[in-house]
Amino acid sequence: MAEKLSIDLVFDKNWCDIPASVKLKCIGKMEFKERLSLRCTAKAERSLVDSQKINFLKGVFWGDSDDGAVQVQNASYWHVQNYDKTDSLYKVAQIWIDKSSKNGSIFQVSVDKIDSSFDEFLKHFTDRIVSKTKKRVRIRTNNPDSHILLERAVDKGIKAENLQFFRLMVISSEMKESEYDDSCKEWVCKMDPEVYLEEWEHEFSLAPYVNRK
């Protein structure tokens, strides 16, 4: 006769008595809000929640600037719209330099048309400049394999008269200028597709006629 087996993974105990390995599996099944709630219960739970990555496509944080601070860590892409200060470009670039961020990291921002973010970036990294034009600035990092490229969106198709758009990227130091993407439409639309709205409406209005046989 077979021996009666004991089932160790059935718990009629409190959450605090469950092994960490099982807790991690439970956390992996939780939604974002559930994880945040659990994270607030104790230091041990906070460490467990923080150790588990969560994949999401988009996060939107609403509120006045005095309501607190939003911390961004390990993001390969993020953008800020209608930023009202001139420090975003050089501060993000400095963080990337300090942390030796990976090639492919991207930060984008839209600012007021008369904003001086581009000039502030130049002043801050005068000793690191590899090349510069009215549209782009390339600087060295502390990593010989990586450079940082700042691009300004220059396109007559952009309808936002009061805004300018910038993209900051960590690139390979071996990247040639001939490999730069001269079209900014795709990355600007990723931030704010409405700046090309009139052009899209025109293309859409022509579509029925273009597709006629």
From TrEMBL:
- Lineage: superkingdom: Eukaryota
| Gene giving rise to this polypeptide | Cnig_chr_IV.g12760
Instruction: Write down the InterPro entries for this protein, in alphabetical order.
Output: F-box_dom, She-1-like
Mark the transmembrane ranges. Answer: none
Q: Which organism is it from?
A: Caenorhabditis nigoni
- Signal peptide range equals none
| Domain F-box: residue ranges | 15-56
Q: What are the leading ranks of the lineage?
A: Eukaryota, Metazoa, Ecdysozoa, Nematoda, Chromadorea
* Listed name of the protein: F-box domain-containing protein
Pfam families in alphabetical order: F-box (PF00646)
